[in-house]
Amino acid sequence: MLFNSAVFFKFFAAFLLLYYLVRRHLAARNLLVVAASYVFYGWWDYRFLSLLLFSSLLDYTVGRGLGATEDPRRRRWWIALSLAGNLGLLGFFKYYNFFVDSCVVLLTHLGVNTTARTWNIVLPVGISFYTFQTLSYALDVYRRKLVPTRNLLNFLAYVSFFPQLVAGPIERGTHLLPQFETTRVITAGMLAEGIWLMIWGMFKKVVVADNLAPLVDLVFQHPADSGPMVVLGTLAFGLQIYGDFSGYSDIARGLARVLGFDLRLNFNLPYLAANVREFWRRWHISLSSWLRDYLYISLGGNRGSTARVSLNLLLTMLLGGLWHGAAWNFVLWGAWHGFGLLVHRVWSANRAATQPPGLNAAALDRQPSRWAWALTMLFVFYGWLLFRAGSLEQVIALTRALGHFGTPAWFGSYVLNLVAFALPLVAVQFWQARTNNLLAPLTLPAWARFTLQGVLLWTILLFWKKQAVPFIYFQF
Question: How many Cα atoms occupy the beta-carbon half-sphere of 107 within 13 Å?
Fold first, then answer.
């Protein structure tokens, strides 16, 4: 079920009515959340509800097992069970055919003729998100950062909460689970914030992202040999994926806020980052922090030699790229950002060594220049070319095209369309940055706030498509 579909509005209206009737009764409220979330997920394909239930029951059981023993050997066995179950599930549905095909290609290049059977596997929507969410719970219990819950209903609600179920933010048990263990007081401020986030998120998706999509497809589905067109197509995709994914996160946070819940911030003006490290602190924050806390640190983090730390960082970003999809262009995208983070790390260390005592690297990072921002955006947006390209061959073709400077007759029309749909997004982001407040529109007088929201709603209805366009991150 898509947020930008008529059926979702009917679903949410019915849910909201029931929710407000039972919101003060904890068990009834959580039971309603679980039932509605399973309807929401099963609307796509009810057969995959079994996977959602499997992940939930697995890590609920693992949490109980970890909480019942202090024996290190038994605790390692329990967390190994969680890792094997979650990663095995994710690996089969998402990566089985990719690894089989890659092995066949590799053996063929080595002169070994072989065939292997691949299956017609359907990728369950959101599997990368909810498996990471349940796995983080088990890891937090294992690390004794979280006391395991004994209430299965609360845990099922935590895992399946429909606003963030299929495309995040990836929640932690330490943050979201306690919210299902207490009744929620819904204030006028929460309602105002939730309504704004839903409207703004829907605007970013329906008006910005969906209307930039044809411009992106024009360049990437029929690769042009024009450098300016590749640049504009990549710029359009960078804005499209931001509007699409951050729009989903805003809608999810808005829905949750109206219900009295608080979801983690997932995007914080990432295109204002002045270095690659800062970009990853602002972009898909719930995933980048997950990779840092559960993968990078587990590999050793910053401990050890420079070579070991560099390897840890590269492996983390490679696996982060692979998380996005079973294709080599995603691996290449992860490697590109891993390389960028390594360069920034070395540069920061060298710069800190030449500065006066007392001025650390963190302080230096707070002194960005326009050149640093421009170089960072060039790096990030070339990464989007790698991300969007359908194959390594297309990556090569598009990169070569950057050296050709001819433009087609419709170049000017393309630029006008890109500017028209990007300008409102850029203007609001500039406003948020200048005020250092992502909720800056809520500081307007009531008449101005309602006027702004009315204009956005009118624009959303104007560009609404009869056939709802899926969110990009549903495929991950």
Answer: 11
Contact, 285 vs 130, CB < 8 A?
A: no
Alpha carbon distance 190, 203 (integer Å): 20
The span from the CA of 261 to the CA of 250, in Å, is 13
Distance CA 239, CA 218 (A): 15
Q: Where are the domains of the chain?
A: 50-184, 190-475
Q: Are 200 and 320 in contact, with CB atoms under 8 Å apart? A: no
Residue with tokens 């057969």: 47
Q: Amino acid letter at 342?
A: L
**Cβ contacts of 278 within 8 Å, gap of 6 or more:** 365, 376
Token pair recorded at residue 414: 């393309």
Q: Is 267 left (phi over 0), alpha (psi -120 to 50) or beta?
A: beta
The closest alpha carbon to 383, from 264, 248, 284, 265, belongs to: 284
**DSSP code, position 128:** H
Please give the Cα distance from 239 to 384 (Å, whole number).
Answer: 10
Choose among 139, 203, 86: nearest CA to 458: 203
* DSSP letters spanning 73-125: HHHHHHHHHHHHHHHHHHHHHHHHHHHHHHHHHHHHHTT---------PPPPT
Q: Do 441 and 449 contact (CB within 8 A), yes or no?
A: yes
Q: What is the pTM of this model?
A: 0.91
pLDDT band at 304 (very low <50, low <70, confident <90, very high): confident
Lowest mean pLDDT among 317-331, 405-419, 461-475: 461-475
Assess contact for 137 and 145: CB atoms under 8 A: no
Residue 172 Cα to chain centre, angstroms: 14
Catalytic entry in 25, 109, 175, 324:
324
State the Cα–Cα distance between residues 341 and 278, nearest whole angstrom.
Answer: 10
The answer to whether 324 is a known catalytic residue is yes
Q: What is the mean pLDDT of residues 207-230?
A: 87
Main-chain phi, psi angles of 324, to 5 degrees = -75, -20
